Amino acid sequence: MVKASIITAMSHKLISFKLDIASRHSRGILGVNAQYYEQNCIKVATLEIIELNKKHTGANLSAEIESILEDFSLTKSQIYSVRSDNGRNILKSIESLNEDSDDIADDDEEELETLLVISIRVNIFSMASVKCAAHTLQLAVKDFLKIVASDALFEKAR
């Protein structure tokens, strides 16, 4: 019932995905959220939380994302952006999905016309990869602290 209402709500709309993988104790979990605009309000829906039983490669993640798109009757052309951390595997999966989306053609014309009106000439044929600023900052601080810690260690050694 909830899934059907989410499918209906996202039909013919531009969607922003948020992807994240949590790995603990040799287990990997992929979380996929969708953000869309409805009735003058931004809505967020958790589409899937999946345990990953395969390696977390770009190809495997891409296959999982394509499966989610199919489960929720979404097309790649509806995905406006994908927000994620800086993990190479996720970035590679987005790149792979973009390569595959070049196959969008005339058979989706009606849907594309609807999306074009909504998107106001936004390039809907490729997903924008948006890296999480907080994660990027966290990595930069971590790298900085490594440098500072090693300098302090050298000072103590002198």
How many discrete domains? 1
What Rg do the Cα atoms give?
19 Å
Structural class: alpha/beta
N-to-C SSE string, H for helix and E for strand: HEEEHEHHEH
What is the number of helical segments per DSSP (H or I, 4+ residues)?
5
Termini distance?
68 Å
| General form | elongated
Nearest-integer average pLDDT:
77
Strand numbers in spatial order across the main sheet:
3-2-1-4-5
Can you describe this structure in just a few lines?
The protein has 158 residues and is an alpha/beta fold. The protein is built from five helices and five strands, in the order αβββαβααβα.
Description of the structure:
There is one protein chain. By secondary structure, this protein is α/β, with parallel strands linked by helices. The chain has one domain (2-133). The chain has helices at residues 2-10, 58-71, 88-100, 109-119, 133-157; strands at residues 15-24, 27-38, 41-52, 79-84, 128-131. The N and C termini lie far apart (68 Å). 15% of the residues are buried. InterPro entries: RNaseH-like_sf. This is Zinc finger BED domain-containing protein 4.
Q: Topology of this protein?
A:
Blueprint: H1 2-10, E1 15-24, E2 27-38, E3 41-52, H2 58-71, E4 79-84, H3 88-100, H4 109-119, E5 128-131, H5 133-157
Parallel strand pairs: 1-4, 4-5
Antiparallel strand pairs: 1-2, 2-3
